[in-house]
Design brief:
This protein is an alpha/beta fold. The protein is about 45% helix and about 10% strand.
Length: about 200
């Protein structure tokens, strides 16, 4: 749908490969950090591999890619916007999500620090924090009707988010319509956090 967009297929946990590929892909004005993993385990069963992989993708990769892109934005001397895809799970505990919740909470705080430090360079940084989104990952983790019913019952709008709900929020945060918005988390949760 967007012929001007070039895709890069990378393992974001590989810092050297990421550095080379992303550095060569610029110049940038906008960035959406959307890569994520959800390796669900009860707290007492969290494995080192799940912990490492989750932080590598959900936090470390965001920091690294954002550094590369922000440096290019600063060098160009043009305003920019970064949107990090977080989760409602950054602010509310969810059973079997100890690692996921932790990575997303860390992402929210990283985004606030980025907003503070990049603001003087006219780079805005925000997060979108959706509820369960009906992506492949969302369906895989929430297809059990008993599990999903408990979560949906806590969402005042009575449903999970669709991809377009998140995309539209991201587009708003990337656009000039949010020119005075930085360091914030935009909840796309159907009211989950108020229930």
């Amino acid at each position: 749908q967007c012929p001007g967009i070039k895709s890069l297929c990378l393992d974001l946990a590989d810092w050297d490969a990421t550095e080379a590929a992303v550095s060569a892909a610029g110049p940038f004005e906008l960035l959406v950090n959307n890569a994520g993993v959800a390796m669900l385990q009860p707290f007492l069963e969290v494995s080192r591999d799940a912990l490492q992989r989750s932080f590598d993708v959900n936090l470390h990769a965001v920091l690294h890619v954002s550094q590369i892109v922000a440096r290019q934005m600063i060098a160009q001397g043009v305003p920019g916007a970064i949107v990090n895809v977080s989760s409602q799970a950054s602010q509310r505990a969810v059973r079997d999500h100890a690692v996921y919740c932790s990575t997303k909470s860390a992402l929210d705080m990283l985004s606030q620090v980025m907003a503070m430090e990049l603001g003087p360079h006219k780079i805005r940084v925000n997060t979108v924090n959706p509820t369960v989104v009906m992506t492949d990952m969302g369906r895989a983790n929430w297809s059990d009707p008993q599990k999903s019913a408990a979560m949906i019952s806590r969402i005042p709008l009575g449903k999970f988010a669709e991809v377009d709900d998140v995309v539209n929020s991201i587009l708003f945060l990337l656009s000039d319509k949010s020119a005075m918005t930085t360091g914030t988390s935009l909840m796309v949760d159907g009211g989950f956090l108020v229930s």
